C-alpha cells in the first residue's frame, strides 16, 4: 500500500513538472510528511495557552470577516423587513412568507456555507447555499494540499452548475401566488407575496456568484475584500431603503429595488478582485476544463444541498404550519420577527460554520489529523461561549426588539411570549451549525443529510404538530417540537464528531484530491494526444 502511494505521489510530481515546467517547486499533492511532523513537534513544545492563541488567530482570520459578512448580508433582509413592516401587516406577512419559505427553499439547494447561509433565508436560495458548500469542501482541501490551480476550476464548475439550477427553480418565483393558494394561505397575503417574489429573482442569481466567490476567497483566507464589500452592501441598502421608501414613498417597490442593488454590489466587487489579480495562484483565467468531470461535482453538490435544505426547510414548515392557525396574520408576523432575530444571530454561528469548514478542510488537506481535531474543539468553544452570552441577553430583553419591525401591539406581545423559545434556539444554534461546518470540511454532507432527515422529520415535526395541534399549544408547541428535533441532531453530531477516526479522514481527503487530479490529467492528456494525432 505504501509503495503504491509513493508511486502515485511520484507520478503526480512528474505530471506537474511536465505541465508547468517548474521542477524546482514542490508538487502540489506531495505529502511532505517530514515537514509536517517537524511542525507538529515544534507545536507540541508550546504551552496550551499559546496553542489556543495561535489557533484562534487562524480561526478568526476566517470567522471574523465571515461573521461580519453574513451579519451584513442577512442585515439586508432584516432591514427590508423592518421597512416593509411599517407599510402594513399584510405586506409584512407576505414578505415573511417569501423570505422565510420561498427564498429558503432556493437557498438550501444552491448553497449549503456557510452559511449556511441561513436558517431564516429563503427557500430556493437554500438550494443555492446547499450546493455551493461543495465548493467549500473542494477548495478548502485543495488549498490545504497546495493544489492551488484547481480552485479556479472548481469555482467555474460551481458557476455552471448553480446557474443551471437557479434557472430550473425560476417557476417557483414566477408562480408564487398560485402556489401559496394551493397551500391554503390567505388570499391577500398570497397576492402580495406574488408581487414581492418577482423582485427576488435577481437576488437569487446574485446569490449564485456571491456565495461561491465567498467560499473560494475564504479557502485562501482572502477575507478583507469580503468584509469591505459587506459594509458597502449594508450601508447602501439602508440609505437606498430610506431614500426610496421614506423620501420618495415608493413602498414595497422602493424596498425591494434597494435590495436588488445591494445584493449585486458584492458580486461585482468580488469579481473585479479575482479577475484583476487578487488571487494570482488560484485564478489563471477561464478554462474549458471547467466543463469536464461535472458529474462528481454535481454528486457532492447534491449531497451538500440536501444536507442544508433539510435543515433550513425545517423552519419553513414551522412558518407554514403557523399559517393555518387562527389569527394567522399576527402569528406569522410574530414568528417571522423571531425567526429573523434568530437568523441574524445565526449569522454568527454560520460564520463559525464557514471557519470550521475551512480550518478542518485545510488541515485534512495538509495531512494533519491532530490539528484538525484541535481546530474543531477550539471553534466549538468559541461559538458556544458567544451563544451562552446571547442566550442570557435575549431572555432579559424578551419582546422589546419587536418594535423595530412593527408598530402592532398584538404582534409585539406575541413576540414577547415566544422570546424564551427564541433564546433556547439561539443557544442550540451556537453548537449545531459549527458541527455541520466540520461535516462540510470533512466532506460528510451525505451522512449529515440522513441525520437531518431522522432528527427533523421523524422527531421534530411530528412532535411539533402533536404539541401545536393535538395539545393546543399552538405556535409554542410547534416550536418546542422543532427545538427537540434540533437538540437530538446536536447530540448525534457531537457523538459522530467524537467517534470519528481523523487519521482515516486525512487519507480520504488525500485520496479524493489525488483521484480527481489524476482524472483531470488523464482527460487533458487524452485530448492533447487526440489533437496531435489529427494534426497533418
Automatic annotation (TrEMBL):
It is found in: Membrane. The chain crosses the membrane at residues 59-80, 92-111, 159-180, 192-212, 224-244, 250-275, 296-314, 334-358, 379-397, 417-440, 447-471, 477-496. This is Protein DETOXIFICATION. It comes from Rhynchospora pubera. The keyword Transmembrane helix applies. Residues 1-47 are annotated as: Disordered. It comes from the Eukaryota. The keyword Membrane applies. Belongs to the multi antimicrobial extrusion (MATE) (TC 2.A.66.1) family. Residues 1-23 have a biased composition (Basic and acidic residues). It is a multi-pass membrane protein.
